[in-house]
Design a protein that fits this description.
The chain is an all-beta fold. The protein contains no helices and 11 strands. Strands 2, 4, 5, 6, 9, 10 and 11 form a 7-stranded mixed β-sheet that branches. Strands 1-3-8-7 form a 4-stranded antiparallel β-sheet, with no helix packed on it.
């Protein structure tokens, strides 16, 4: 079982910035973080959860949803077992609970964090 924990959420004004962090660990077996693809999702009140960004194990491949391209940046530090989401030029529509997901490529299991709240309002 992989444990995933997000942090860094909060309340900001439109145009502001936040950096989310996600840590992953496993205690029941050997864990190699670099073997896991990592993703950020978000879910607004009354809406379905949507993919925001994803990054490959080595960090060389990245994908962003059209709504955040040019504003958000996903990155990872495999020595710290962490993935980050730098969010700039935040808009009210970015308000959501942000979730971190870990999964092995072509694997059958997904590991989710508990989520962290991001609120953008004036």
């Amino acid at each position: 079982q992989v444990q995933v924990v997000e942090s860094g959420g909060g309340s900001v004004q439109p145009g502001g910035s936040l950096r989310l962090s996600c840590s992953a660990s496993r205690r029941d077996s050997r864990f190699t973080f670099s073997l896991y693809n990592m993703s950020w999702y978000r879910q607004s009140s009354g809406k379905e959860r949507e993919l925001v960004a994803k990054i490959s194990g080595a960090g060389n491949l990245k994908h962003y949803s059209d709504s955040v391209k040019g504003r958000f940046t996903i990155s990872r530090d495999n020595r710290q077992n962490r993935v980050f989401l730098q969010m700039n030029s935040l808009k009210p529509e970015d308000t959501a609970v942000y979730y971190c997901k870990a999964e092995r490529p072509y694997g059958s299991e997904q590991y989710w964090g508990q989520g962290t709240q991001v609120t953008v309002s004036s």
